Amino acid sequence: MFGDLFEEDGDGFSSTPGTGKPVKGRECEPPPPRGKVQLCGIKNQGGTCYLNSLIQTLLFTPELREELFSLGPDELGCLADKDNPEAKVRVIPLELQSLFARLLLADEQTASTTDLTDSFGWTNNEEMAQQDVQELNRILFSALESSLVDTSGSRLIHRLYHGTLVNQITCKECGNISERQEDFLDLTVSVRGVSGLEEALWNMFVEEELFEGNNLYRCSKCDQLVRAAKSAKLRDLPPFLTISLLRFNFDFAKCERYKETGSYVFPLTFNLRAFCEQSNWSDSEYSYELFSVIIHKGGCYGGHYHVYIKDVDQLGHWEAPDEDVKVKTKTWRQEARVTEDKSEIENSVDADDPLSVLTAILAQEESNSVLVDQLGQKLLNKTGTPWSKKYKKQYGTISKFLQSHPEVFLLVSNGTRVALKSAAPAAAESVSTEPFSPTAAVTETTEAEASDTSDGCHWFDLNDSTVTAITEKDIEKQFQGKESAYMLFYRKSTMKRPQEAIGNAGYKVPPHLLEMVQEENARLLQRRTEFDATSNSIEVRLHLAPRYRCENGALHPTAPNNDSIITVTFDRRQTVGDLRLAVYQMQDLWDGDMALTVAKNVPAGLHLYDTLTDDQMSLYSAGVCNGTDLFVWNGREVNGVTMQTGAEWEPVLLTVFRPSAEQLGCEDESGVGEGDADGLVRSMKAFAGGATLGTVLEALGPQEALLCQEQSRPGADGGGASGWKVFPPQDLQRTLRDLSLKDGDALLLLQPKELDSSIFNMNGDIVTVTTPSDCRWLQVEFCPRSGMQEEDAEQDKRRSKVSASGNMLLSEVKAKALEGLQLLDKLNGLECCLRQTDRSGKRLPPVHEHLSVRDAGIRLMTSLFLCPGPAPTAQQLFLYFSVGLAPSDGQELEVTVEESLTVKECLKKMLLMARLEGDSWHLRRVDWCEEIGEPLMDENASLKEAKVLHGDTLVLVEGQLPPKGYLKLSVRMSMDPFDSSSVPELYQEFPTECSGSEMRFVGYVEISEEASLDDFKTQVTTLPALHDVCVPSPAFLRVWMLEGRKLARILRGKQQTLRKLKLGNGAEVCVQRLMKEEDLGLKDLLLTVQMGVPGEKAYYPAEEFLWDAGRDGTARGLYAALATQYGLTPDNLLLAKHLPDKHTWMPVSNWTQQVSKRKKKRKAEGLQAAPFYLKDGDIIGVKNLLIDTNKEFSTVQDEIGQQRLREEAANHKTRENAGSGDCTQNTGPKKSGPTKNRKPEVALSINVGLFR
């Protein structure tokens, strides 16, 4: 187990004593300094709590520690030479010296035993497996004895821990005494059937075992069987007496091990005179006092160790626990004043105000402070109602409530104790060396402290990394139970510590170890300083008012670039005034007042919220964090426009529809906004959320106009009807927020005279907009050849309105247009094609004539152009291309190619048309802003495989393809109704390739794998397909990873690189547009929650729910979060997770096992683990048991899906039986799966080299 003392595994091992293994990757947070207790804990490596408890016991055995420190490098060697095979380095004693020095002097809360366990030769498996501390005590001492051979400390363990006992048999006939002497390292005493340690020792060393009757003893002197008495006595007593308690036994009836948990009393001090062979020594030679108790918590197959230790050198800072703090003396005037204050507070308490109740509880405490864990019980005693039922729903947990009122409450002792700020001790701001003082005026000695400090030494509980102060009364709690004493360590009362050792942690520590720890402390201090500066540095984005304009109810930059934003790095501990002064210095030309206002990007633009007015307040207290947007202005207006600030004035971006000129039968096609397929003109308008609907109507049109809200959308083919509800007159006085209008909601503005047309029909308060399919048309205009003169071309221009529907083929539209324009004879067999134009007048690619009007994405009541040239077939692509420059900078060329053509063949054809030569050319796409974009990487792929679409623009670029290290990601977009209405052409241009109709392919992104997630989102917004999608900032996009064309997980961390997010080349992602900024934490889960319809096998529309699984990832935590969401109690909810592949629901139980108060509850398993494996996007069904008695979650669709799965399984089984024939007829019954057996216990072992 401990391996070879001379050989070490050199992989990743630090040669510097005490530094441990080096940390790979970026620098982590430095360890915190020591707490108030001033004692150092030990990190648990997974299952080394038994080692930690024993190491702490040895550390607080000063005589052993100092003897070990007295061994210098001349005897033990040096750790720097441990890799030298010729050097004799005694690794275990050296590592113990180094660990002891760090535990005593290093300024950190916890120390690591990694170097020590490496010197033992332990692997990760051994560090994770728990062993018996009694066995470790013996083999560690044996290893030390072997390691210290031929040194001055060779008899160290023997001198301090070894004792001698003698077994005697006395003949009752002749009085002859036969004896046998034994050495012991520790005494193992029985627990079963005895009441305590003294009774067990009495049975071992006082009671005699008689040999009589059939059990006689053969005396060597009498040479016959005689009556005799057997006894044992202690002959030599060691300075330190170690006692092991036999807590574990074996039940032969049940054939299993068990742990003795009955009461077993042991004294703090006791006298061994009655148990010793010699009785003429002085009484002090028999006296021992307890200084360490190793405690085992758990059962016989596992558990946890920690240790109670008496600080004999008084190295720690002890404070009496709150329950033992009692005021010893007070004057009668103070008592009268306190009584009067209590009565006043009692009369003024408001039971509905938790702040008043908690303040009264703390004010009535004599110590003015209470443990946070006990505050809830005191509140229950005072009000009769627990915090969880009366206040938790509104205010959260009691700890969160205390932290949210720092002006009233002060958390001390590492957050475990709370006091009123007016009565808080002055020592709370700095580490005090005195125990906690209950009052600021009088320093009083408490009864608990007086009883526990008779010799000035106090007790501490060292539980791995945690060190807490305890009293001697706490030791009595370890007499019995699942958590009880397992090993006892006593020291002779005559062993007194020298005065210079009291409170001196560096006493007898060798100079080279002192120097090592001082260097380590200096490094820790530097790391903490650097980390403190780094962790408090925040980036603040400053938006300068002169570079913004007010438009559509929000602020927008005057220039499209990022010059309007200045990013500065600032220390959040500095004040608002410091930041204001820094901005003044940056803006030399600023004149007048300067206001700093918190801003936020909303769909309408940039909105202003709270202005930072207190220059003395720190940025942290003012709520300024990393990434905060601050608007710099004069506090009144921006470029002459008065700005309203605050959440109540947050703009709401509305979609406003008006009748188009065509719908009203007007020849004038003038209108504002973009025409929709149903003949309505759409525009985006923003209004303050606090504005009334009447104000909106006044801004949009005349007062007599009708304002309607959308209720239903028309059919998918553009025909049918849409319903709009007219706002009643009383709603004109209500605000947009009161009417629950949100970003993206649609409004229709109608004048009363427009209701006379056949398009609009009003019935009650519902307006129906009807657009009959048989009234649709397309206008076709003939465009002559580009080489003709302008006069001839103008004469040849002809227009014809062709009646059309969404299902009509474009070839039929062309035939009707040729007939209506009378061009059949003029063209004389020349080929022609139909083309559209964009807003700038550019001709779009010819349409595929085998498609229908709807499938080609052509809107009715628009114009097409009949142009010379062949129309592409279904297997052909029409492409634009230019040479070397973006299309906006040069002349575009056009080419029609087969989609099966490879990228390389297409490149050659374009080079031939452009009359270019050479092999150093490649093709690139053109992005949405008509600039050169990503290259086509796979030249051997076909144009179809390369995702080159009909009408794409390519650029011939001279040079080789870009190097590796770039990712080509396929991007799809999840479309909601708001998105589909804003960008209808996106639905028509990109056919879906996923299951369902919610994701649409929008393009590819080529980006470096070292780019951040924010950079990727920014590049996604530049895709041509999204040029009409409004995304104020990357935070308005959510990115999903797709697996099998299904949403798998959300990518988190704005600054995480794509490589760390494990995105590979060719990966598919889906972006989702949000209506507000989102920055998910690593522990947040985005769930889809749907509430069941009472009494039906159906659910209300689903909604997203963000659950902080890091706070409480168990079923109880999910129940509590959803109960808060729906305003119910957790007991009134029933939850289940939907399994779409099986069409079933897995109930999520909120039941927890009831256990006694003395036993701690077993830690609940998180829902992200087995069997639920909860992840982003999972569907959670919710049942409200108050109104829904149906506890079944399955729907009709689930039952249909289950029936289909059963039929498929039956068909599959039939096919298997048919294929197997008769070979399965003689097979025996199936064997049950193997049972899981407990792993065999592996005992500790040791192999120590020789030092001779």
Automatic annotation (TrEMBL):
Residues 40-493 form the USP domain. Keywords: Hydrolase. Residues 1-11 have a biased composition (Acidic residues). One of its GO terms (cellular component) is nucleus. The keyword Hydrolase applies. InterPro entries: Papain-like_cys_pep_sf, Peptidase_C19, Peptidase_C19_UCH, UBL_USP40, USP, USP_CS. PROSITE patterns: USP_1, USP_2, USP_3. GO terms for molecular function: cysteine-type deubiquitinase activity. Gene3D superfamilies: Cysteine proteinases. Pfam families: UBL_USP40, UCH. It comes from the Eukaryota. The keyword Hydrolase applies. Residues 1-32, 1211-1244 are annotated as: Disordered. This is Ubiquitin carboxyl-terminal hydrolase 40.
